[in-house]
Design a protein that fits this description.
The complex is a heterodimer of chains A (332) and B (607). With 332 residues, chain A is mainly α. Chain A has helices at 2-29, 34-37, 45-54, 61-74, 103-138, 143-157, 160-174, 192-226, 229-236, 241-269, 273-278, 284-293, 297-325; strands at residues 76-78, 86-88, 95-96, 101-102. Chain B contains 17 helices and 21 strands. The chains are: A mainly alpha (332), B alpha+beta (607).
Chain lengths: 332, 607
């Protein structure tokens, strides 16, 4: 087991290395010139050249990458040739000259927003998905099953930008049931009431699509397990239906659900781009999209690294959990 | 089974991530972000109306995720200059607040006691500061602070993106270091700015303080230098005099010190971020005849979805009643807000406005790649400008352009006759493919195949189809080249990456065509997408810049505008209009001519 974990961690590091390298290579192949983009309106070839030097784009991409990696471990100095150098202490994920801030500081600020959005949405969809999935399985073929699956089909068919906008327009702007969502510093502990008012609709938006998926997944898994011999045996032994469902059927059916849930949560932690934009939440998704639109390489690279690390770690955790949930599975 | 499921989920996650990023890349449009203006007129500062109230908060909703720059030497976006100029960043001179465009473009003293004194050749300008000027810590704002602020422009290794008129006009020699291997070669002038300090004596010679009077020695006559000082000449606390008010260099743009009626309380960039301005208690109203400073607080909310923003202001509930839009009404809501392009619907009569924006839109043509003027004329003649305007929103989009100088520049504008007689006959708005074919035949050369570069949006995809089709009718083969908006100018300013012609827009820096013709058609100003290097044209531009007689200079700009259209350095498309609105409890709501902005300095909330 320990050897497996070590091998996976080493694999993670290698994957992160390749990923960031790929981002650097792709960015250097882009036709846009960041030196021109940050040149402003009064631009001249001399200013562009100056910007290229300032942004350290006048050195080979591989050396840029080396400086990036070195910055993570030992820190980095920007504007070295000037009378006002900028120190970025380790772990330095870069400095955004478009926003005049260190990348790590921006990510650190955005991460809690995304964390709470993801956790709230995750809990919401898992509860709804598991409960209604089991209900549909127990009532297979009856009106409860058809109703749940009908709702799941509708939820699954609606894109999150549509759900988000509809909720925003009706609940906030027309019916005035909630105030305009506004994330403020110190949330959630500084102002829990305002926090729930702000996050309720984003959670519902995220949960709708995912809950529909998990309803169907849970129903199918539980039904599959219901057909197994050991479940028939459990029932034949006279075990209460609650025990049969929770202890035997649901647990056995959980493995693919855990796999999917772990990765979905990790993906969300990397930033829920659409939901964050609709509800004006300053999370990682918004930061990512802003950096892509502005061709802000340091920020793109930093966010890619963090999001990828989350997904890779989640993969590892899911694989380990898999063994815990299903004793038949052995890692190695 | 484990490996299969995990792989599938992983692939799905990566695929969805990639899809979202790719989808997002095509989402926005970029427009150059300069300033604007029109004609000077008499002094006519309006008195506060009876309903004007002190107090409250005005909210600004914007789709942007941050301000481009708040540093006085780096701010260059018209709307930003208007907002920060009205709140925290005073300049030596500024413009009058009124909805009369001609009057609004009149210069008035701000930090200075008058609009500047020039010598007979306009090569030396002096401004004397008012009494009672302060920084937000209560210390006195002195002449040396203005000088220090200007000096920062020369630190072009750190202070970037901003207007460079100081570098262009102040009499300091070019940087003698030209060897690219030398790091000092990055500096544009022999003075390297206050951080490095090299060449300080040259700057001290060119810019000097005598008590409250600052004098600028210029390297050429600049008749409108008192307009120039509205851009990039605002003061920054001189560290030698104000050790507690630090100049943080590159990061000063995040927290500049205020000398206006407000100061920065909080600035968080990004989606969901805010900028909050609160009262600067050290500001003395007696020292400031320009700013009314009615609200107690300003709050800018960043990253608001454009559709959500429109709906919030239409509903105008709660705090949104005190909100103004930092952008334009979305096309799908125009009919809700406006009865026609000039008239708001009754519900919006006092809170919506439609007026010329600062920009003239045009297609640049690379004159190196299309060197035959008959070919360029054929392109202009064949273009269906009427369809282009209709695609942009018809009458709401503005009027068809006939040059790069817009009518709201007052006496700087005169019709060029481009579409009536400049090419020997009238050109219909829908284009004249037969005449275009004739021009190609007269050129003596086959028309080359063309590629049209444009920053991709859904609307411009349709515009591209119009360009391809209408020029195709004249036998001109055009390929449309969509470019992600964030990368557009980075590509089209690259001589090799840019194609034969493409989309662009431009607005002047102050109400003189000296901030239109030179930057667009010479290498001074950095927007010469047409790569014009015709010596006779460049020489004529230099003569016009040096002309001290305003009327004579205006006439020279008219002629140069006409000549540029005759040679078709660009194809003008529209003189843009913009529609914008605010909540029910904020006034006055009109577009202030100098920057095409809200009149921030006189805005207030109503009960």
């Amino acid at each position: 087991m320990a050897g497996y974990v070590v091998r996976r961690v080493l694999g993670m590091v290698l994957l992160l290395f390749l990923l960031t390298l790929t981002v650097f290579v792709l960015f250097s192949l882009m036709p846009a010139d960041p030196a021109r983009l940050t040149c402003g309106k009064a631009c001249s070839p001399a200013i562009i050249e100056n910007n290229r030097h300032r942004l350290e784009l006048d050195i080979p991409p591989i050396e840029q990458y080396q400086r990036f990696v070195a910055g993570i471990f030992v820190g980095r100095t920007y504007l070295k040739d000037t009378a006002r150098p900028l120190e970025c202490e380790a772990p330095c994920l870069g400095y955004s000259f478009l926003r005049n801030q260190e990348v790590l500081a921006m990510i650190t600020k955005a991460a809690p927003v995304t964390f709470w959005l993801a956790i709230g949405g995750f809990v919401t969809w898992m509860v709804i998905g598991l409960v209604f999935g089991v209900v549909a399985a127990l009532k297979r073929g009856r009106w409860q099953d058809r109703t749940v699956m009908g709702i799941a089909l509708v939820g699954y068919s609606l894109p999150s930008f549509f759900i988000g906008l509809v909720l925003f327009f009706f609940v906030v702007l027309i019916w005035h049931l909630l105030p305009i969502p506004q994330w403020t510093s110190g949330m959630p502990f500084a102002n829990p009431g305002k926090f729930f008012q702000t996050m309720l609709l984003p959670w519902i938006t995220i949960a709708t699509l995912n809950a529909a998926f998990y309803m169907r997944l849970t129903r199918n898994q539980v039904l599959e397990v219901f057909g197994e011999d050991y479940v028939r045996t459990a029932r034949a032994k006279g075990l209460p239906e609650r025990i049969v469902v929770v202890k035997h059927a649901l647990r056995a059916g959980l493995t693919p659900i855990v796999t999917a849930a772990g990765l979905d949560l990790a993906y969300l932690l990397g930033g829920a781009i659409i939901t964050e934009n609709i509800f004006n939440l300053p999370g990682l998704g918004s930061l990512a999209i802003g950096s892509v639109l502005a061709s802000d390489l340091p920020l793109i690279t930093g966010i890619t690294l963090v999001a990828a690390a989350l997904i890779i770690v989640a993969n590892l955790v899911v694989d380990l959990l898999y063994a815990v949930v299903d004793p038949r599975v052995r890692v190695g | 089974m484990l490996r299969t499921d995990a792989w599938l989920r992983r692939a799905l996650a990566i695929g969805v991530s990639f899809g979202l990023i790719v989808a997002a890349c095509g989402g926005t449009e970029t427009t150059p972000s300069p300033t604007a203006a029109t004609t000077p007129g008499p002094d006519d500062t309006p008195a506060p109306t009876e309903e004007a109230k002190t107090g409250g908060t005005i909210y600004m909703l914007t789709q942007a995720e941050e301000f481009d720059d708040i540093d006085p030497q780096r701010a260059y976006t018209g709307e930003d200059l208007a907002f920060f100029g009205a709140t925290i960043m005073r300049s030596l001179t500024s413009y009058i607040y009124t909805d009369d465009d001609a009057v609004a473009n009149t210069l008035q003293p701000d930090l200075a006691t008058d609009t500047g004194q020039a010598n007979d050749e306009a090569t030396e300008w002096s401004f004397t500061l008012r009494d009672g000027l302060t920084w937000e810590d209560g210390s006195e704002l002195v002449c040396e602070d203005v000088k220090y602020g200007v000096s920062r422009t020369y630190a072009n290794d750190i202070i970037v993106n901003g207007p460079t008129y100081a570098i262009q006009y102040i009499d300091i020699p070019d940087n003698p270091v030209t060897d690219e291997a030398d790091p000092n070669s990055v500096f544009l002038k022999a003075y390297y700015g206050p951080y490095d300090g090299t060449g300080q004596e040259l700057f001290d010679e060119a810019v000097s303080c005598d008590g409250k009077t600052i004098t600028f020695k210029l390297n050429q006559p600049v008749a409108d230098f008192n307009y120039t000082v509205t851009l990039g000449f605002s003061p920054v606390p001189d560290p030698a005099i104000h050790p507690d008010l630090e100049d943080t260099g590159e990061q000063y743009t995040l927290r500049p010190w205020s000398n206006g009626p407000y100061k920065i309380d909080e600035y968080t960039q990004g989606n969901g971020g805010h900028l909050t301005l609160i009262r600067n208690e050290a500001w003395d109203p007696a020292s400031d005849p320009v700013r009314k400073a009615y609200p107690d607080k300003w709050q800018v909310d960043f990253g608001i979805d454009a559709k959500v923003m429109d709906q919030r202001i239409i509903a105008s509930e709660g705090d949104d009643a005190f909100a103004i839009q930092y952008g334009s009404v979305q096309p799908e809501n125009l009919s809700t807000v406006f009865a026609d392009p000039e008239t708001p619907n009754p519900d919006f009569a006092t809170r919506a406005t439609s007026d010329f924006d600062p920009f003239a839109r045009y297609y640049w043509i690379d004159t190196n790649k299309i060197s035959n003027v008959k070919h360029r004329q054929a392109m202009a003649v064949a273009l269906d400008r009427d369809a282009i305007r209709a695609n942009l929103g018809g009458d709401y989009a503005g009027a068809l352009g006939d040059g790069v100088i817009k009518p709201n520049l007052g006496d700087q504008y005169a019709p060029t006759g481009m579409w009536t007689d400049l090419f020997g006959q009238a050109i219909p708005d829908t284009g004249d493919p037969e005449f275009a074919k004739q021009l190609i035949a007269d050129s003596g050369e086959p028309m080359p195949a063309l590629t049209w570069d444009y920053p991709q949006t859904a609307v411009r995809d349709q515009e591209a189809a119009i360009v391809v089709a209408s020029l195709g009718l004249a036998g001109i083969t055009v390929t449309a080249n969509p470019i992600p908006p964030g990368q557009y100018y980075g590509i089209v300013f690259d001589d090799e990456a840019a194609h034969e012609f493409g989309w662009a827009g431009w607005g002047p820096d102050w109400p003189n065509a000296s901030t239109v013709i030179p930057p667009l058609f010479t290498d001074k100003g950095g927007w010469n997408l047409s790569r014009v290097h015709d010596e006779d044209f460049v020489d004529a531009v230099q003569e016009a810049i040096a002309e001290l007689d305003h009327d004579a200079q205006a006439e020279m700009w008219h002629e140069l505008n006409t000549l540029a259209m005759e040679r078709v350095y660009v194809i003008p498309t529209t003189f843009g209009l913009s529609q914008t609105f605010g909540g029910t409890k904020v006034q006055p709501l009109y577009q202030w001519a100098p920057y095409g902005s809200w009149p921030y300095a006189e805005m207030y909330v109503t009960p």
